[in-house]
Amino acid sequence: MASATAITIDPGRLSLADLRRIWQAHVALTLASDSRVTIEASAVAVQRIVARGNAAYGINTGFGRLAKTRIADDQLQQLQRNLIFSHSVGTGELLGDEVVRLVLTMKIGSLARGYSGVRAVIVDALLALYNADIMPCIPAKGSVGASGDLAPLAHLTLALMGEGDVRVDGALLPAQQALDAARIAPVVLGAKEGLALINGTQISTALALHGLFLAERLFESAVVVGALSVDAAKGSDAPFDPRLHELRGQPGQIAAAHMYRELLAGSAIRASHLVHDDRVQDPYSLRCQPQVMGACRDLIEHAARALLIEANAVTDNPLIFSQSDEVISGGNFHGEPVALAADTLALALAEIGALSERRIALLIDSTLSGLPPFLVREPGINSGFMIAHVTAAAAASENKSLAHPASVDSLPTSANQEDHVSMSTFAARRLHEMAMNTATIIGIELLAAAQGIDFHRPLETSPRLRRVHRVVREKIAFYEVDRILAPDIEASRALVLDGALSAQCGDLFSPLEA
């Protein structure tokens, strides 16, 4: 459980709130004191297995297709060192600190479950690395999500060994230099330990959690901005009547409809067109928000449950059962649960953005919204939000391509020994780009909706949405005549991403807890 100052890792019991805190900022970690008993029991079991001389995969054999190659006892340390060097083949941009913190946390928790055969010194070194805020430089590309996230986790392990590079306060340093400064001794890997460190789904899961936490914020912001657009377009709140949603019974839809009702409650703009409004029904992008956003909410919650289980799981191979000294080879490293959860999040992110883009199109179309064309007072001499909508459309289109499921792809590796893989790492990695696209779309809608609200003065929107509008206008002025809009879009996107909009809405939104 998390305390005010630190989080204690009780292996197998990390909460979504713990993981979210670690993602948001560096917070000190401790390990439950009784964990070391199970860690050492597993390490002692490996020593007994080595002493008996029987072949055990990853302990005294080669790896993958080379599993039948027996390794002499006096070469076991070299075997593990060679494993890390040969698997450090990652490419691409480095993972951000927020993702690496999650990776380290989950690797500590997994090894501390006591089924990986590592000594306590390995777990302590990971803990010391994290608490010193020394972030291993981990390239984002190079894993197919089985047999675990081998290449990226090898780069993490290099840092423990005093090899490769790390990041400290944003600066790149040689790992040995950073370890020396923090007075952390580099580890010498024993039997099984290198394999335990690089086998597992922690990279994929951390990237997916990063996508999940962004999706949470985007969902909340999109609901708030969508409600603001309803009022800007003088839409009806009748489609949010609870009786409609109870009859369908979808839990996300019911919850979303409640959010829209609360956000719009008390709007003078809505009161102004309750009668004598000849529009019978609003376009889907206004009217069907509870149905679409509610379904996205359900998908996000499903992904959260799967990812929380995975964050607490033991996912390396083989696993050591110390009570019986058994070494059992299996496939817990296969990232399919993460890949499917990430694909689910991708669908939600794409749909949230797609619906928002449609509301922008509605708001700038005077025939649908009743607002000035392109949301500017003198259209013609001014183009207003015409091309801002094009930017939103481009982002929405990109997301449609990126939403193609990664989990349906597989490419055999290791000379066909590893003949079905999950592609979970890419499935999760692409969520960041999708989230940034969606944040841009919602940010543009926020500008457009705030502009529409201003055109209805002296009528006011609801109390909750007035606070949201005020936050926007504190950062971004009313669009009077054409100006460079890119800085406004960036400022608006920042409001979407940092949770500033939902923060104005009281306790209407609460973080997921799977």
The major β-sheet equals:
3 strands, antiparallel
Q: What's the pLDDT, averaged over the residues?
A: 94
- In angstroms, what separates the terminal alpha carbons? 14 Å
H-E order: EHEHHEHHEEHEEHHHHHHHHEEHHHHHH
Widest β-sheet, arrangement of strands:
4-6-7
Question: Helical stretch count?
Answer: 20
What structural class is derived from the secondary structure elements? mainly alpha
The number of distinct β-strands equals 9
Shape assignment: elongated
> What's the alpha carbon Rg, rounded to whole Å?
26 Å
- Fraction in beta strands: 5-15%
As a percent range, the share of helical residues equals: 40-55%
How would you characterize this protein structure?
It is a single chain. The longest helix has 32 residues, at 424-455. The protein has a 3-stranded antiparallel sheet with strand order 4-6-7. A two-stranded parallel ribbon has the order 1-2. The protein has a two-stranded antiparallel sheet with strand order 3-5. It is built from 20 helices and 9 strands. It is 55% helix and 6% strand. The chain starts with 5 loop residues before the first strand and ends in a 17-residue tail after the last helix. It has helices spanning 16-24, 35-52, 76-87, 97-111, 120-131, 150-160, 175-182, 193-198, 202-232, 242-248, 251-264, 268-272, 284-287, 289-311, 336-364, 366-369, 386-402, 424-455, 463-475, 486-497, and strands spanning 6-9, 28-31, 91-94, 135-136, 139-141, 165-168, 171-174, 319-321, 326-328.
